[in-house]
Automatic annotation (TrEMBL):
SUPFAM superfamilies assigned: Thioredoxin-like (SSF52833)
The Thioredoxin-like fold domain, residue ranges: 87-273
Segments traversing the membrane: 34-54
Alphabetically ordered keywords of this record: Membrane, Transmembrane, Transmembrane helix
Region annotation (Disordered) ranges: 1-29
Pfam families: Thioredoxin_4
Protein name as annotated: Disulfide bond formation protein DsbA
Compositional bias segments (type: Basic and acidic residues): 1-27
């Protein structure tokens, strides 16, 4: 790849991030968005108090669930294939013998997660294919609590249906959900609609026309699992928002020591430095 193309890719990522931040600044005055280390931290004005949603992860129990998700929380847990751990909350993508692990914390409605995946996703895919490290996904649903709705939970459940097909289908579907063409404004609850999720899935060959996948999405087979995965995210230490990256348990940042590496070059430098330490 030419130096010019590298520069253009960097500029494109920066422009997308800048545009996202500018859009966030125009939100309703009762809802401020703070970008902290590349993460979205929603601050909601509730009555006379201010609730910083990310700092309250895991403290609201099931109070934010609507009736269907409340019902799902009481059902028997069904774990997708290709998961690990007692409750199937371990989502590892990559070669089992890879010596290093990248922990990736995300929310499917998160706009910065979308920008990150669009910019750095291909680099991660190549590194995983080369066995440089494996990726452990930790998926949240706090933006459902921040903005209302169930898009984060429903998309996570659909990702479980994709993982049930194969790890490769999970990765491809994750990428499609975060793509510029598909990812909705986080205040819109598009991913709460099964038909939207299935339409996006048509971009993934392993999922297009896959009757079992479609049935699992429509039936909410992995809804309880999605809630369980989200609960595990809420227990994570030193995670104040999304996206958050950790290499072998240590937070991964750009050279400024604060922000998530948002360009391929920033990311590769951060990864290489982490693997040498």
């Amino acid at each position: 790849m030419s130096k010019r193309n590298n520069w253009e890719n960097k500029q494109s990522a920066r422009e997308r991030l800048r545009a996202e931040r500018e859009r966030q600044a125009k939100k309703d005055r009762t809802r401020r968005q703070l970008i902290v280390g590349g993460a979205v931290v929603a601050v909601l004005a509730v009555g006379a108090g201010i609730v910083v949603a990310v700092s309250q992860l895991g403290k609201d129990g099931k109070s934010g669930l609507n009736a269907s998700w409340e019902a799902a929380s009481k059902k028997e847990l069904v774990k997708p294939a290709n998961t690990g751990g007692d409750n199937g909350t371990e989502i590892l993508i990559g070669k089992k013998d890879a010596k290093h692990t990248l922990d990736l914390y995300q929310d499917m409605r998160c706009p910065i997660c979308s920008v990150f995946e669009q910019s750095v996703g291909d680099t991660i895919d190549k590194d995983v294919k080369d066995g440089k490290y494996k990726v452990s996904y930790h998926v949240a649903t706090f933006l459902d609590r921040n903005f209302g709705g169930s898009g984060s939970k429903n998309a996570l459940s659909a990702l479980g249906a994709a993982l049930n097909v194969s790890p490769e289908a999970f990765s491809a579907y994750n990428k499609a959900l975060y793509s510029k063409a598909n990812h909705p404004n986080e205040t819109k609850d598009d991913y709460a609609k099964d038909d939207v999720l299935l339409k996006v899935a048509n971009e993934v060959p392993a999922l297009k026309g896959n009757a079992e996948f479609e049935k699992n999405v429509k039936d909410g087979t992995f809804d309880k699992w999605a809630l369980t995965v989200s609960d595990e995210f809420d227990k994570a230490k030193d995670v104040t928002g999304t996206p958050t990256l950790k290499m072998n348990g240590k937070k991964l940042t750009a050279e400024d020591g604060k922000n998530v590496p948002i360009t391929p070059d920033q990311y590769t430098k951060a990864i290489d430095a982490a693997l040498k330490s």
